[in-house]
Amino acid sequence: MSTFQIALLLHLFGAVLFAAGLVVAGVSFLTARGRSSAREIAAVLALARTGVLIAGAGSVILLGFALWLVHLGGFSYSETWISAALALFIAAGVTGGIAGQAPKKARRLAGRLALETDQRTPELDRLLGNPASLALNAAAALMVGAILLLMVWRPGS
Amino acid sequence: MSTFQWALFAHVSGVFLLVGGMLVSDVAALRARRTEALREVVALLSVVRSGDLLANVGATIVLVFGLWLVHLGGYGYGDAWVVAALALFLGQGAVTAFIAGRRKRAHALARELLAHRQETSSEPASLHGDEAILSLVVLQNVITVTILVLMVWRPGA
What we know:
The complex is a heterodimer of chains A (157) and B (157). Chain A has 157 residues and is mainly α. In chain A, 83% of the residues lie in helices and 0% in strands. Chain A has one domain (3-152). Chain A has helices at residues 3-32, 38-72, 80-99, 101-115, 122-128, 131-153. The two termini of chain A are 24 Å apart. By secondary structure, chain B is mainly α. Chain A binds chain B through residues 1, 5, 8-9, 12-13, 15-16, 19-24, 27-28, 31, 35, 37, 39-40, 43-44, 46-47, 50-51, 54, 145, 148-149, 152-153, and chain B through 1, 5, 8-9, 12-13, 15-17, 19-24, 27-28, 31, 35, 37, 39-40, 42-44, 46-47, 50-51, 54, 145, 148-149, 152-153.
């Protein structure tokens, strides 16, 4: 295997971890909304936290090897598709970070409620059904899809 | 974008779904293994079912577009790396199906015990979280990484 292939392999490994972590977070959040007790919701939302940690680790690997690949592949950081991908990556991270605030608060509240009444409260329902959080999560997912499209297409290269 | 690029985009999206689904299942099942509270076990193993569904959808996309890519890329279905990747993919499918079957049975058992007003039990965990299953989970992930190596390296191509 060439150095380029090893860097590409590690880049893809990071990308798969990143995407898989996001899937874990998304599925956990969506599943938690359908659970009836605070204890169940807290248990399921704890998975979302694990997903975010995996996605975070994936993003570091992905970005590190992506920057090396630009160098190894003889591309330039000023090429449109690379700048656009980097901008989208940062935007997706910021959007996902903001979107993750409601589930994070929901997890903490559900954890507290689990020790008290174990019942869902209007506040917990509001956090789990937060439309802004759902919309921002969808936007972040679309941005990740757009990055993948740019990586495959590489317009202008 | 060329047809090859569209097929590659779909293929990689399928990989994200497949690995994402597998990770959802593994993370939720490992967490379910650590609790005896049946309501939590049922909630967490419900997430496992969602993960399995996603992994199945992802695997179908990966296989269909993978086979199409072999054709579009001018490779041969008899090339060693293609044959090896397909064999590993089938092996991974068999391992995943076995693990999913155990988890499905554990989920059904936990629901049944809960219906009989039992609050805690270690039986579901012993069914889906024994050493043999954990070894298979490791094997499943090793196969995934090996396939990824083959896809990037393409020895002999």
